[in-house]
Structures are given as structure tokens and as C-alpha cells.
């Protein structure tokens, strides 16, 4: 009996210790318990694989980076308002997550970048050189990550940047900034693979989503965009280090009163890189200014761009190929609803138009324009597809 009781007590002790360890490993570290010292709470969660909790109230947070590696997956739960300092900032980020495997950013809270206090200092459009204003949320070298349910408003620069990682999902988030806010791209990706963006509402002063160099295997589904510049691949070709973009699928999205609908933009530059294996499918346009556009003479209007590439006379060495536009429908606010303006030195190859139905919002007929593009079409074609216009070889 005594022996059995001894073993029973040992088993209970082992069970209790196991439970304690499990609770600790899944511990919740409320920043309030650390005097609102976010980094201290993060370090504890990172050591044990727990949760940082930001709840109840408003928190003013200066530039901060949460770094790994961590012992296990870490959850960052925001059920409050996190506010950036007012004024100009050109740091590489306001809030950064770096070097983490297994990251979950969640909650019903808001990241407020206080952009109106910084936007008057943005001169990148006119200056020959400039430093962009700080993005709100930056994820670098992050793997197996999920960002969901949060809100980002009024970033100084880009709202969210995801770079140099793998397997990142963005689900059910809201991003807002005024239509005239400069360079406030909603989500920007670069040098990353296997990205999934879905079920989100994005309205900004720039691209709702910008797919940058080195992005491969990205899927964008059920995203409502507007205001903004649409969903864009690019800009590509600005730097000699730019990598190929491949495996892009944008499906079941809506563009409302956007400057562009679905777009590929490449610089008039000497750098040889490619954009390939792209599908835009089941996209609804509601008074989009340029519903379908490939722009290989992009320079962004910046003096810096024109100074760098002034000798190229409007040619791009970026190869755009194997691009499908399927089931794109709705209204265009400009007469040219389909504009394929490709490079004379690297003409677009394998462009497919399948069941396109775009009407001019103000009445009348929309048109198509093609230059240096090899295009095939099938199904409904409104406006009528333009004829292939290829350079003389």
C-alpha cells in the first residue's frame, strides 16, 4: 500500500511538473506586467514559446524590433491601439519582426502610424534622391507566419513589408490610408516565396499590394482594393540586384475607383530580369482608371529615375511573359481599358486575354492599346483586342 502510494505521488508530481512546464511554454506575457516594456515581454515569450499580450488601452511605442530565433512559436496579440510617435521618421521600420520561425500576429487591435504628421515631408516623387518614410510593420527573415484580423491605419510609409522569408499568410486584415497619402502601399513583398494574402480590405494612397522583385509563388484571393493604385507587380528593374518574379495568382478580387486595376510595371532600365507565370482571374473593376495595364516605360515620375536611365530612350530589359487575364469584368473610368505597353527590346510574350468584359463607365465604348506585345484572345472580348504590334527584327 505504502509503495503504491509512493508511486502514485511520484506520478502526480510528474504530471504537475509537466503541466507547469506546459503552461510556462504556452505562457501569456502581458506587457502591463512589464511596465509596458514591450521588449521585456517579448524576450520572455521568445525564450519559452509563449504569447505577448497587448490589451486594454493605447500604447505609444517608439521604433522597435522583435528578434529571434525563439525557442518555439510566438504569438503577438494586439487587442489595443499601438501608436507611433508623430513627425518624420526615415528608419527602416516602426515595428519589426526579424529572424523568427512560427510567428502569429493577431487580435482586434490597431497599429496607428500617425502618417498625417509625416506625409508633408515626403518628397520622393520630385527629389533626385530621397529616403522613404518608415513603414509601419516589417517582417524580415520570418518563416511559417500568420498575420490576421489586425488593422493598420495611416502609415508614414508602406503599411506592411514582408521580405526574405517563406510561408507567410495574411488573412482578414484591414488597411486604411487616404487616397492622397504618398507611398502608403498596403502590403509589399520582396525576395520571398510562398505568400498567401486573402479576405482583406485595403485602401491606400498607393498600391494596395505591390509585388516586388524576388517574389515567387504568391496567391492573392478575395481582396477588396480601393482607394489606391490597384494590385501591382513591380516596380521591377530599378536595381541590378533585382530578382525574377514568378508564380503570381490574383483571383476573386475587386478594384473600386482605383488608379489601376491589375498592373505590371517595369523600369526603363538596362537590368535583365523577368516576370513570368502570372494569372489575374475573376477580377471585378468598378470605375478603375486602367483596369488592365502592362507598363514597361515606368519611371514613376521621379527625377531620380529619369537621371539614372536618361540614356535608355524608354526601353526596358525586363522580360514579361506568360501572363493570363481571365474573367476580368466591370467598368473603366478611362477609354483605354486594356493597355499593353511593352518593351521594344524585350517584347511581351505569351499574353492571354480570356473572357474580358470592360465597359466605359461614362458610356460609349472602351478600347484596347498594344505595343510590342504578342497577344492571344478567346471568349468574350470587350473591348475588342488590339492587334499584335511587334517591333521589326
TrEMBL record:
Q: Which GO terms describe its biological process?
A: carbohydrate metabolic process; cell wall organization
Region span, Disordered: 371-393
Alphabetized SMART domains for the sequence: PbH1 (SM00710)
What protein name is recorded for this chain? Polygalacturonase
N-terminal signal peptide: 1-25
Q: Tell me which InterPro entries the record gives.
A: Glyco_hydro_28 (IPR000743), PbH1 (IPR006626), Pectin_lyas_fold (IPR012334), Pectin_lyase_fold/virulence (IPR011050)
> Is-annotated flag, keyword ATP-binding?
no
Q: Where mainly located?
A: secreted
GO MF annotation: an example? polygalacturonase activity
| Keyword Secreted carried by entry | yes
Pfam families cross-referenced by the UniProt entry: Glyco_hydro_28
Keywords annotated in UniProt = Cell wall, Cell wall biogenesis/degradation, Glycosidase, Hydrolase, Secreted, Signal
Q: Which family does it belong to?
A: Belongs to the glycosyl hydrolase 28 family.
The compartments listed are: Secreted, Cell wall
Amino acid at each position: 500500500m505504502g509503495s503504491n502510494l509512493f508511486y502514485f505521488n511520484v506520478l502526480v508530481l510528474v504530471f504537475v511538473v509537466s503541466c507547469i512546464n506546459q503552461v510556462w511554454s504556452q505562457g501569456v506575457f502581458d506587457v502591463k506586467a512589464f511596465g509596458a516594456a514591450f521588449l521585456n515581454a517579448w524576450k520572455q515569450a521568445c525564450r519559452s514559446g509563449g504569447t505577448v499580450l497587448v490589451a486594454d488601452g493605447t500604447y505609444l511605442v517608439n521604433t522597435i524590433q522583435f528578434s529571434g530565433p525563439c525557442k518555439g512559436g510566438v504569438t503577438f496579440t494586439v487587442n489595443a491601439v499601438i501608436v507611433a510617435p508623430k513627425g518624420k521618421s526615415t528608419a527602416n521600420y516602426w515595428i519589426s519582426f526579424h529572424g523568427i520561425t512560427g510567428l502569429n500576429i493577431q487580435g482586434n487591435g490597431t497599429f496607428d502610424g500617425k502618417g498625417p504628421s509625416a506625409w508633408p515631408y515626403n518628397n520622393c516623387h520630385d527629389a533626385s534622391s530621397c529616403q522613404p518614410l518608415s513603414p509601419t510593420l516589417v517582417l524580415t527573415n520570418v518563416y511559417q507566419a500568420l498575420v490576421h484580423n489586425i488593422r493598420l491605419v495611416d502609415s508614414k510609409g508602406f503599411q506592411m513589408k514582408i521580405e526574405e522569408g517563406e510561408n507567410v499568410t495574411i488573412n482578414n486584415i484591414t488597411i486604411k490610408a487616404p487616397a492622397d497619402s504618398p507611398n502608403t502601399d498596403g502590403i509589399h513583398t520582396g525576395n520571398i516565396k510562398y505568400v498567401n494574402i486573402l479576405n482583406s480590405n485595403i485602401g491606400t494612397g498607393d498600391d494596395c499590394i505591390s509585388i516586388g522583385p524576388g517574389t515567387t509563388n504568391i496567391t492573392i484571393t478575395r481582396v477588396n482594393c480601393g482607394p489606391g493604385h490597384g494590385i501591382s507587380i513591380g516596380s521591377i528593374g530599378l536595381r541590378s540586384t533585382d530578382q525574377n518574379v514568378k508564380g503570381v495568382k490574383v483571383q476573386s478580387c475587386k478594384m473600386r475607383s482605383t488608379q489601376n486595376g491589375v498592373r505590371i510595371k517595369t523600369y526603363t532600365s538596362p537590368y535583365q530580369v523577368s516576370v513570368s507565370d502570372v494569372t489575374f482571374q475573376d477580377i471585378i473593376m468598378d470605375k478603375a482608371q486602367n483596369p488592365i495595364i502592362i507598363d514597361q516605360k515606368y519611371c514613376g515620375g521621379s527625377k531620380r529615375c529619369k537621371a539614372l536611365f536618361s540614356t535608355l530612350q524608354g526601353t526596358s530589359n525586363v522580360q514579361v511573359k506568360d501572363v493570363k487575364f481571365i474573367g476580368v469584368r466591370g467598368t473603366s473610368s478611362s477609354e483605354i481599358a486594356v493597355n499593353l505597353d511593352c518593351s521594344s527590346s524585350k517584347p511581351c510574350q505569351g499574353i492571354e486575354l480570356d473572357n474580358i468584359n470592360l465597359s466605359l463607365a461614362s458610356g460609349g465604348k472602351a478600347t484596347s492599346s498594344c505595343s510590342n506585345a504578342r497577344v492571344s484572345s478567346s471568349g468574350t472580348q470587350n473591348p475588342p483586342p488590339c492587334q499584335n504590334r511587334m517591333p521589326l527584327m
